[in-house]
Amino acid sequence: MDNKKNISMAVIRRLPKYQRYLGYLTEKGVERISSKELGENMGFTASQIRQDLNNFGDFGQQGYGYNVKDLYRELSSILGMDRNYKVVIIGAGNIGQALANYTRFEKLNFHLCGIFDVNPKIIGLKIRDVEIKDIDEMVGFFKDNPIDIGIIFTTSASAQKVSDILVNNQVKAILNFAPIDLNVPADIIVQNVHLSDSLLTLSCLLNQNS
Amino acid sequence: MDNKKNISMAVIRRLPKYQRYLGYLTEKGVERISSKELGENMGFTASQIRQDLNNFGDFGQQGYGYNVKDLYRELSSILGMDRNYKVVIIGAGNIGQALANYTRFEKLNFHLCGIFDVNPKIIGLKIRDVEIKDIDEMVGFFKDNPIDIGIIFTTSASAQKVSDILVNNQVKAILNFAPIDLNVPADIIVQNVHLSDSLLTLSCLLNQNS
DNA sequence: TAGATTGTTAATCGATTAACAATC
DNA sequence: TAGATTGTTAATCGATTAACAATC
Predict the structure, then answer these.
(1) One domain for residues B89 and B126
(2) Residue A164's domain spans which residues?
(3) How many domains are there within chain A?
(4) Length A194 CA → D12 C1' (Å)
(5) Which residues of B touch A209 (CB under 8 A)?
(6) B132, part of any domain
(7) In this complex, do B172 and A85 lie within 8 Å of one another by their Cβ atoms?
(8) Chain B nearest CA to A58, separation (Å)
(9) What is the per-residue pLDDT across A151-183, written as a single tens digit (0 to 9) for each?
(10) How far apart are CA A109 and CA B201, in angstroms?
């Protein structure tokens, strides 16, 4: 099955926000909501919400709106939250270790299966029952442990090399925290989180404002 | 001076990437580069690069292109990198502490002046010479220490409250890692880094692909 | 001067918003 | 049935790309 309507990234990026808010409404016990009300609460137009959702199906009902619990479930499913993903982290410095410890992680069905680093001082340490292994053991590890997602916290210098190893070992998606643009085949999914870019954007806006 | 051409976020988000690449070229000793070449190397169109840069000035020269070192300096200045920013971190959990330790931080002229948390177990600890203080001391602290940027790593539940305190104490910009949308006056700059949204986007794309 | 490449205007493309017939 | 609100088509807005005169 190929649900390829070629949905734009702009739409996909809004889905987690919808899902989160619908989750909040579910907890509050709200039963139904219209696109108008949802839009007002979330700061979107009703039109945009209807357009966005209709990329994935007809979840609403004329004259009624959307059933909160159902829509929440649908969104969770679209976001792949009823699946389970196997994850490795490469680079266990400050931020790598912090994210390895991130408990919200497991709640989103991301199962941490391996941590790799080059630093002999930390190899062997355990984070949440997962041992930090030497990066040289990575290829061997992948033989026995098929992995869905690799999260890169290495230096920029190593990131491309690590990315190549991931790609060559059937990893399908990469979350990249190293401040470079990775070169990967077209069928590999990459999301970048460039912290220093966010800081610089902020500093740029501050600078503009004065 | 009001350099308000109302430059779009799409443009501003590309500036750190330009600056980073120009820095790399400077190090490599490259002296000049055309928008065409730059575009090919970075995966943008030459047209877009010229449009983007011309929002800020005429940095190029017909028939020659751009002087790498000069453009690098200009971009650094536009990004506010020749200024110094005073920063506080609120929420010193895993990720908050990791970022407090982040050395790249200082390189970008972000000077960490304070860390605050509610957890009595970690209050008093020092991270890079900065003591973690009780969040209740925050208002008093701001009296003597004017701060430019607040970075929020608290839970979603506390984030809005913290944001309000920042805003009421002349903090001008907020980097928000809590997965909620903050409510702030129009003149306050907010950048969101929603890690779980990035993870969900990735998982959504993986899900779409199969 | 001739060639190269800019800055900028015009054309295109895509995303958002508005409008409205369909229908619960 | 009448009112509400959807799904969807059409209009608008903004961002990207193409084109080209200006000029180094």
Answers:
(1) yes
(2) 85-197
(3) 2
(4) 33
(5) 172, 187, 189
(6) yes
(7) no
(8) 17
(9) 999 999 999 999 999 999 999 999 999 999 999
(10) 13
